[in-house]
Design goal:
The chain is α/β, with parallel strands linked by helices. The protein folds into 2 domains: 9-90 and 166-227, HAD superfamily/HAD-like (Rossmann fold, 3-Layer(aba) Sandwich), CATH 3.40.50; 96-163, Alpha-Beta Plaits (2-Layer Sandwich), CATH 3.30.70.1020. The protein contains 8 helices and 11 strands. It has helices at 35-45, 58-65, 96-106, 133-144, 168-175, 196-204, 212-215, 220-227, and strands spanning 9-13, 50-53, 71-73, 78-80, 86-88, 114-117, 122-125, 150-155, 158-163, 185-190, 208-211. It has a 7-stranded mixed beta sheet with strand order 5-4-3-2-1-10-11, sandwiched between helices. A 4-stranded antiparallel beta sheet has the order 6-7-9-8, covered by helices on one side. The radius of gyration is 17 Å and the shape is globular.
Length: 229
């Protein structure tokens, strides 16, 4: 059984699959009505030391959880500190527009496959069409082959073509050097392959790294209950 959240913690939270259940598409997720207020309640009791570390765009984070929370958007490509100041960590992919056109053309005959356009990255979602996983894997590998500014990130039923740099582990470490997070015990909760580096970083910095499947029986409700102070 997990101990209660320490009031001296600096709390870092993923969104999809952690605070809210995964859905067929990124746009169709459902946010419990009480969640935004509950997060701000916990944030206040932690003296402001709560941040969102998500692969989503910053605008999506604000749409889902309400505006203004300290956040690392697009896996740390954009950082918003407690004062609201934005810091850009990466540059847009040089091949972004060319790759977008190629992906859009290739998935015409792949019903259920979706392309998500972020500010810095492109994501191919195949949750509704898992039979195309191998074909899509070959496609994104071909696109990214030889690229000097891009990396391929694997996620739940998704392939993401993203700029090098800007990851959740580095974002967590960055926040831990900023007020009101510095001097506190880092706690990160995530659910995906993309969250494992941040889980490890929290532990490396003397804190706790938790995984939804391993520590909360795969239940986002259990996560929501645990983070409420």
């Amino acid at each position: 059984m997990l101990p209660a959240l320490n009031p001296n913690s600096a709390l870092f939270l993923d969104i999809d699959g952690t605070l809210i259940d995964l859905a067929a598409t990124p746009q169709s997720v459902e946010v419990p009505l009480a969640l935004p207020a509950q997060l701000r309640q916990t944030q206040a009791k932690l003296n402001g030391a709560l941040a969102i570390l998500s692969g989503r765009k910053l605008a999506d984070i604000d749409r889902l959880l309400g505006p203004g929370l300290p956040s690392a958007a697009e896996h740390g490509a954009i950082l918003r500190d407690a004062s609201g100041k934005l810091t850009q960590q990466v540059q847009r992919l040089a091949s972004y527009d060319k790759w977008l056109k190629t992906l859009q053309a290739e998935i015409i005959d792949m019903p259920g496959v979706l392309i998500e356009e972020k500010e810095f990255s492109l994501v191919v979602h195949y949750r509704q069409a898992p039979k195309f996983e191998a074909e899509l894997s070959q496609l994104v590998d071909h696109l990214i082959g030889g690229s000097e500014d891009a990396v391929l990130m694997l996620a739940h039923c998704a392939f993401e073509l993203k700029p090098r740099g800007g990851n959740k582990a580095d974002a967590l470490a960055w926040f831990m050097q900023q007020p009101p997070f510095s001097g506190r015990i880092p706690v990160f909760i995530g659910d995906d392959i993309t969250d494992e580096p941040a889980i490890e970083k929290a532990i490396e910095l003397g804190g706790i790294g938790l995984h939804v499947a391993r520590d909360f029986a795969g239940q986002t409700q259990a996560v929501r209950d645990w983070v409420i102070l």
